[in-house]
Amino acid sequence: MSIPKEKLLWMYETMVKSRYYEELLVEAYAEGKKPVFNIGAGPVPGEMHLSNGQEPAAVGICAHLTKDDTVASPHRPHHHAIAKGVDLKRMTAEIFGKVTGLGKGKGGHMHLFDPTVKFSCGGIVAAGIPQAAGAALAAKQKGKDWVAVAFIGEGAANAGAFHETLNMAALWKLPLIVVVENNSWGISVPKSGSTAISSNDRRAAAYDNTVGYSVKDNDPLEMYRVSQLAVERARRGEGPSIIEIETYRFLGHFQGDPELYRDKEEVPSLREKDPIDRLRNHLLSEGIASENELDQVENLVKNEVDVAFQFARESEYPLPEAALEDVFC
């Protein structure tokens, strides 16, 4: 299965955008939190979960989605949001708690919502799977070929919502795809210590009308190919799929995580297999793009991200009297 040049360049552009975005976010999040780490201080308060290293999971499948397809994301959402086309300025403003944000500053990093591109972030482990199934059911009832994708970590595949939702999705042959981002760590617990199955795609065998796919070694090209099969199958009305991708995070479970559970050589060894570098080398070695072409892509992306952060910093905080506006109980 050959991948069109425009798709490969979009994947590279989006991965670079996500990486640079989070690099700036690391810097902004650290402001005001030193010398003693204070989760409530600085322009970006609260807990922060970043996805550097996990970009292939997002671009591989979002390359096949449209604005009519739904994506539900967990607490590590930025690479999904960027790949789905969430407004970068408004997303950044939301993370900074500004009134120009997606939720007028009320949701923050773990509760990003952009209905214009059908993106939601539930924040809680496995919470996005039922949400995505609801969108898939709506598509089926409306007679549309829309697809719903739920991204989860490998630990969430042990949650009840995973099994309950897949049971219904299989029974009703819903166009649902669950992408399991296996970064080997559920907070500080290794997958080997929490999950009695080698790869979560094998769980598809427990349900009729369900197919499982496995992507090894954080490979963006293989993620694209596997995702195409799952998306096409969903659009044909053949039922749900589970995709597990072996990926990895370069940073801790959250910013400020001392990472005492990780071997000190783990991250350096993973960075040697950086998926962005690997995709860039593929584009160059195959003659798909030139050094100059990729440099231009990187410069444009970085300018877009810089503008988004400037917009967020210059935006106003909500007034105290607006705290209960647009809040529904």
UniProtKB/TrEMBL annotation:
GO terms of biological process kind: pyruvate decarboxylation to acetyl-CoA
Gene3D superfamilies per record: 3.40.50.970
Keywords: Oxidoreductase, Thiamine pyrophosphate
InterPro entries: DH_E1, PDH_E1_Alpha_Subunit, THDP-binding
Entries under SUPFAM superfamilies matching the protein: Thiamin diphosphate-binding fold (THDP-binding) (SSF52518)
Co-factor(s): thiamine diphosphate
Source taxon at top rank: Bacteria
Stored Pfam families: E1_dh
Gene Ontology terms for molecular function: pyruvate dehydrogenase (acetyl-transferring) activity
Domain Dehydrogenase E1 component: 46-319
PANTHER family linked to this entry: PYRUVATE DEHYDROGENASE E1 COMPONENT SUBUNIT ALPHA, PYRUVATE DEHYDROGENASE E1 COMPONENT, ALPHA SUBUNIT BACTERIAL AND ORGANELLAR
Protein name: Thiamine pyrophosphate-dependent dehydrogenase E1 component subunit alpha
